[in-house]
Each structure stands twice: as C-alpha cells, then as structure tokens.
Amino acid sequence: MPIRVKSRPQGVQRTESLRTPSPRHKFGFVAELPDISEEDSFRDVVKKLSVYIADTVVLPSTFEQLRTTAAGDGLRALVDHLGRTCTHPAIVNALLALKWHYGTSVEDKGLMDARANACEIVAWRFLTHLSEREAVDYCLYEIPDPKDVESHSPTDEEEGEVDEHSALLAQALHSSVGSSRRTPHSASTKRNLLLSSISRLTMSMTGDDEDGEGEEEDPTANFTNLNALEIAAIADAKRFLSQAVVQKIITGIWEGSIIFWKDLSVHSEKKPQFYNPNTADPFSRLRVPKYLKSFEVLFFLTFLGLYYGVLVERDPTRITPLEIFLYIWFAAFALDELSEWIDAGSIFYATDIWNVFDMAMIAIGATFVGLRIVGLETHNEEMVNLSFNVLALEALFMVPRVFSILSLSPYWGTLIPCLKEMGKDFIKFMVLVVVIYCGFLTTFSLLGREHLSLHDMVMSLTKIFFGSSFVGFDLIPKMDTLLGPPLMIIFITLSSILLTGSLTGMLSNSFSRVITHAREEYLYVYSVYVLEASTSNRLTHFYPPFNLLAVLIFRPLRLFLPSDNKFRAARILLLKATHLPIVAVIEFYEWLTIGSSKGTQYSGFRGPRQAVIGSPHPAAAKRFAQARLSNNSLRADNNNHLSQLRPPAITAISEGAIAGRRAQQQAADEAVEGRAFGQHEGDVEARIADLTAKIDRLTELVLTLQTQSSTTLGNVGVA
C-alpha cells in the first residue's frame, strides 16, 4: 500500500515530472518508492525503506548480481529517487541499520543476505550523489533522541558508566525507554537490544502503528546517538567503509581534520566539525587518533625498556626501583585497556587482533607480580625464579605489540587478516589431526607397551608429524611384529602425505580466498580503530601513566563529592597540567609539517560551504532535482518525437540505444565504486569510452532513419 507522509523535504516541490518511475517487479506488481519527508522520525524512515527493500528483493542474489545485473534495477531507481527528493539526515543511518538487521537474520539466509547487500549498495551509491562535505554531514550525523528535548551535556564520571565513557554501542543505550541512563549493559546485551529493535520494527511491514506499539516503546531507541559510520562498523558493512569518500572522512578523523571536541571546558559538547586552529583549543588535539597511536608506541617502547632492564637486573632478594616503575607501567597499561574495553565493548574490542595481545600481556604481568610478591614474602627461591620465567614470556607478545604500528600500513595491514583467517583454519584442521593421532597413540602404546612408555610414544608420533618419518621405522622392531609394521607404515604415509599435504593445500586456498578481500578487512579494522579512538563521549582522556594519577586523586573524592561542574573543571585542570608538554610537541609538529596551510577551514573536503557537520543541507537535493528535471523533460520530448516513427527498425535501434545508455551508466557506477577496491581506473575508462562510441553510432543511425522517414512521409503527403 502507498505510504503517506505529512510533508515533502524542504526545498523540493512535489511534481509529477520529478517523481521517479517505480520499478516493475519481474512477477508483475510495482514496488512503491518510499516518500521520505525530512520531518519523519528515524523509525519511520527505517520502516519505509524496509517495505521497499522487502518488495524489491524477493530472490536470493549475490552482491555482484545486485550491483551489475537487472536484479538491481529497483535499487538504482531507489538511489535515483533518494538522490533527487530525500534530504532526511538519517537516511544513511537507516540503510545501514537495515543492512545489519538483514545480515544477522538466520531465516532464509540467502534472501536476507541479498537484502543486506541491497541496503549497503543503496547507502554507498547515495553518497555518490553528494559532494564530499555533504557526505561528511550524512556519515557523521548522530540519531537524536526524540524524547530528550533538553540538551544533555556529559559529565566526567568514573570509568565504566554509560553516559561518560560509552562509545559506539554503549552510548546508544543511555536513552533506552524504560531503562536507567546509568545502567551498564554487557556487550552481548547491547548487540541483542539493537538486533531486536530493528527486528521488531521490520516484522510489521505497514506504514501505520495500528496496535499503538509506537506509543509505548520505540524499537529504534537503542540506535540513539550513533552515527552512520558507527552503525556501519556494527553491521560489518566493509564495502561501504571501503568507499573512497568514506575513507576520506575516516582519514580526516585520523589526521585530526575532523574533530568532535572543539575545546576542553566545563560546558563542552561533543559535535563533529572541521578543525580550525584559529578557534579550536590546542588540547583538543589530544583526542586525534594519530597522536593517540603515536603516544601509544612511545609508551610501549618505554615499557619494553623497563621490561628488559628488570630481566637483566634480576634481583631475587628485593624489589628494585626499576621494578617499581615496571609495576607502574603495568598498572597504567591495564587501566587504559580496561577503559578502552568499556568504551568500545567486547564486540569491537575483539575486532582488533592486537587487543588479544594486550590481554595476554596483562595476564602474564599479573601472574608475574603475584608469584614475585608471594615468593619474596615466603622466601621461596623456586617461586621467585618461576616468576622471572613467567615474565620472560611477556616478550612473545610485547615485542610484536611495539611494532603493531606497522599494521596501519596498507601492505602489512593487508597481510594480518590473511594470517588471522589462516590461523582459524589451522586450528580447525588440528582438531582432526588430534582425533586421528589419539587413536594411533592408543594403539601403538599398547602394541609397544613392553619397550616404550606413553611419554616416549607421544614424542615419537609428534616427531613423525613434523617430518621425521625415520623415527617411525626405528619404532617398528619395538612393537608387535604382526600388527606393528603395517600400522606404522600406514601412519607414516598418512602423516607425511595426506595430512601434511591437505594442510598445506588448505592454507594455500585460505590465503588465496582471503587476500582478495584483505583490503576490505584492513580498511574495516582501521576504520573501527579510528572510530573507537575518536567518537567516545569521554571529554577528559588521560594518557597512561597519567591515568593512574587521575584515578588516585578523583576516585576517592567521588565517594563523598558530587560530580558537578567543579569536579569536571578539576579534571580538566589536571589534564592540562599533566599533558601540556605533549600538546606542545603536537603543536610544534603541526607547525613544521602543515605550516600556514592548516588554517584551511574545510580541510580539503569539496562541496557547498556549511558551518556545521551533521546537519545536511537541502541544496544538494535542489541541485539534483533541477538537473534531472531538465533531463527528464528532454528525454520525454525525445521519446514523444521518436514514438511517431513506427517502423520496427527504429524501435529496435531505440531499444538498443536505451540498453547502451544503461550499460554506460552501469560502467560509470562501477568506475565510482571500483576506486574503493583499488581497481585500475584506466580499464573502466576504456570501457566507458567504447560504450560511448557505440551509443553515438546508434544515435546517428536513429537520426538518419528519422530523416528518411520524415522525407518519405512528406513525399506521401505531396502525392
């Protein structure tokens, strides 16, 4: 049924010629294009889009089929319609939220995956209708809370509370209806809340709330305060995040061209904006992800130096001053990781493989400290030696962690997802190996129980698996003479040829399969890191080890002092006092590298000038509406003129011209989308040029036939 809206978007008038024709479904009915008004709530936008996507995508289709074949005609019509008529700021947020809903559905997986891909395709193609600054507006627009009329300024709370330190998933939950703002949720609970929100919304494919459910509970309330990029990270929209314009936005956040905190003051509010050094507070540069990562590397280098110093010193009788500094670094590191885990939640925290290294480092460090203190108190020399042996394991994780900065390089960052997936396949394969080896181990242990112990047999079979086949032949005389030789030969053949060869081939196939999408994986991990480091609601972020100082001073005060503006001002004062040298280094670096050009207001983002990010302007819709209105009028005149020519040849050629134009448009879309995947633009441009030449020849032929037909009709009239 048609969906009615109260009003049209600002600046776009309702005309019949402006309306995009609805695509005809292959089964005969027509999918009604959604009429989305700027006054619609996020809930209404999601519901209208879900109705259209469900009516348009009714068969399982791959991503490439939706992108390049006639199966995606309905999506192209939707993109064209939204680009001309829609100025709702949350349109990209709604598409990506639907992508996540369909992608996580377990019912009719093939169809739901097709709908998820359709939402992602529409989201990124919609951005191609915008200028770069307008794309920034839509991507960084945060879904407002309709029930929260008064502006809410976050206060500096203790780490772990939702309103101050929550980012991505956590910050969306503080406005859930019927729940406390300060009630913490586990990451699994957050994910389930978001999934159930869209699930309950799309279960009713009608435009009206007949049951009054909307009056009691808003299913989209859990998405409040999430921007489109954060929803894309939740939804695993890796192709969307790989788009060139999206990556330019993320790179702008990484480099500090786009900031979320203009200054550090009691009444500061989080708001995305372009960085202007003439008006911004220099201490806001502490939140730039690039500088956060740089200081993290410096912190780990110092950590590694203290670690080697303690191992070289190795005093078994007392705790040395160098060891005390190592404990301080351990505590600061653990506190910073705990804060990051609370900020991001376990879903995003586990996305970064280096966080696994961090958890291992914390576990080894805590074990070392416990064994060290207990050994010194009990004067147990063996336990003290064991503590240093445990500390020696720290290098397995700390040294790679120091050089984790290489993962931000496209080359090294592309290899990490490949190694990660190969490791998963290796672990799965080893389960089969262990099962097979347990059977042979039991048999061989019983056959050679008179000459070989269980430990000797385990070591021998392990050597055989790693290529020492001769060990198996040496064991044959020590086992049963009847069953031992054939079984050992079978085991050696199985290990040396079948299992080893299968493992090598499987890992090779895994690498080949993953390397084709490794670029997307790298950009996804990079994007998630940038968003986690920049978009949390925490105003005062203390670098380690200064975070320990903040905890020691302000955590006891919280027991009997209210968290008011004075308390927040004290935290800001401490932050400025401790981080002043760091800010001075950052300012000096920017003065050397950027110089006077850093005063550029829009940081290289092209498009109409807008003062505030996150508030899309209807100028784009007006511009595209006027341009396409003139194109539609011209196309209608041409069609009316050609319709007077009835010969079948002209009809066939006209249809061929239309198909050629469609192929040209498809090639142009692929040219835009291909840049996100690093494809060579020369091949695409050559294809477009070839199609253009063919279309020109068809046009000339149509005009020639038209002239001939006009001449013939004129001669007939004269006769």
Structural account:
There is one protein chain. By secondary structure, the chain is mainly α. The chain has 5 domains: 1-254, no CATH class; 256-287 and 540-612, no CATH class; 316-407, no CATH class; 411-520; 644-713. 64% of the residues lie in helices and 1% in strands. The chain is built from 28 helices and 2 strands. It has helices spanning 42-56, 63-68, 73-85, 91-104, 109-127, 132-139, 162-165, 169-172, 187-203, 213-216, 228-234, 238-241, 244-255, 289-313, 321-349, 353-378, 381-392, 395-402, 410-447, 454-465, 470-475, 484-515, 518-534, 546-557, 565-593, 619-643, 648-674, 681-718, and strands spanning 258-259, 273-274. It has a two-stranded antiparallel sheet. The protein is flat, with a radius of gyration of 32 Å. The model is unreliable at 1-20, 25-29, 149-190, 204-216, 609-621, 627-654 and 672-683 (pLDDT under 50). This is Podospora anserina S mat+ genomic DNA chromosome 6, supercontig 2. Residues 10-20 have a biased composition (Polar residues). It holds the Pfam family YVC1_C.
